[in-house]
Design a protein that fits this description.
The structure is a single chain. By secondary structure, the protein is α/β, with parallel strands linked by helices. Helix content is 49%, strand content 14%. The chain has helices at 3-13, 30-43, 62-73, 78-89, 103-109, 111-121, 137-145, 160-169, 190-201, 217-224, 234-241, 248-264, and strands at residues 18-24, 48-51, 97-101, 125-128, 149-150, 153-154, 174-177, 208-211, 229-232. The longest helix has 17 residues, at 248-264. The protein is globular and about 45 Å long. The protein starts with a helix and ends with a helix.
């Protein structure tokens, strides 16, 4: 079993839900990304989503856009992100790490080299926002050859045919975007999530994580009752933005502990 499969199986046995925080690699600095990753795990994270900064992050709202800008200004690159995962793995061999980003940097490196390097450093899954499943078979064949899980987004507007297609290709877990719009946008409609999930579960046997718009412990707890994992990105990145280099790990850890306690209640 992969690290992702093992983690979700253990959580299911414990009747708990996954907490999946997102941070952007290289924000607030290259030196602090790995300490932040360890801090997230210590605070109760089950899976880490590590953002690969990109100059045109079309699915992201202003908060994560600014994080990408800061990271790129700090000299962050895809090779640098892979190096951070290798550094993280020196101390943590168990926590799944998913890279989340856009196709251009991977295309520039080449999918075959990228997938091989992911396997070498200990990446468990890859979520490429702008690579739809209908057009990605060759790319994801490289990932699957190296036992890297291709992870897909589904949205409130996703139709039955696409859900079936994703169900065939996806590994690890499926990420349900809980609202229309970019990361950090709008207010969650819990009843809409509750209505959509049975349609997803009819086809998808993998765990389903829900993200976009989860900004506090109360919302995280409510969402966790409906799915298998809660993804929190913009709120954590906002905490990073509002902190300084001396207190950022502690501040993010405090926030993630609050989310963890709420989900476990």
């Amino acid at each position: 079993m992969s690290r992702i499969d093992t983690t979700f199986a253990q959580l299911k046995q414990q009747q708990r839900k996954a907490l999946i925080p997102f941070i952007t690699a290289g924000d607030p600095s290259q030196q602090l990304t790995v300490p932040l990753m360890h801090g997230l795990v210590a605070a109760g994270a089950d899976v880490l989503e590590l953002g690969v900064p990109f100059s045109d992050p079309m699915a992201d709202g202003p908060t994560i856009q600014r994080a990408s800008e800061r990271a790129l200004k700090n000299g962050m690159s895809l090779r640098g992100v892979l190096g951070m995962v290798a550094e993280f793995r020196k101390q943590d061999a168990a926590t799944p790490v998913v890279l989340m980003g856009y196709g251009n940097p991977i295309e520039a490196m080449g999918w075959e080299i990228f997938a091989q390097r992911c396997a070498e450093v200990g990446v468990d899954g890859v979520l490429t926002v702008d690579f739809p499943p209908e057009e990605s078979h060759e790319a994801f064949e490289h990932l699957q050859r190296h036992n890297i899980a291709p992870i897909f987004l589904l949205a409130p507007t996703t139709n039955e045919e696409r859900i079936e297609n994703v169900a065939k290709l996806a590994r690890g877990y499926v990420y349900y975007v809980s609202l229309k719009g970019v990361t950090g946008a709008g207010n969650l409609d819990l009843s809409a999530i509750e209505q959509k999930l049975p349609q997803l579960r009819k086809h998808i046997k993998l765990p389903i994580g829900v993200g976009f718009g989860i900004r506090d412990a109360e919302t995280a707890r409510a969402v966790s009752k409906l799915c298998d994992g809660v993804v929190v990105g913009s709120r954590i990145v906002q905490e990073i933005e509002n902190s300084n280099e001396n207190n950022v790990v502690a501040n993010v850890g405090k926030l993630v502990k609050e989310l963890r306690q709420a989900i476990d209640q």
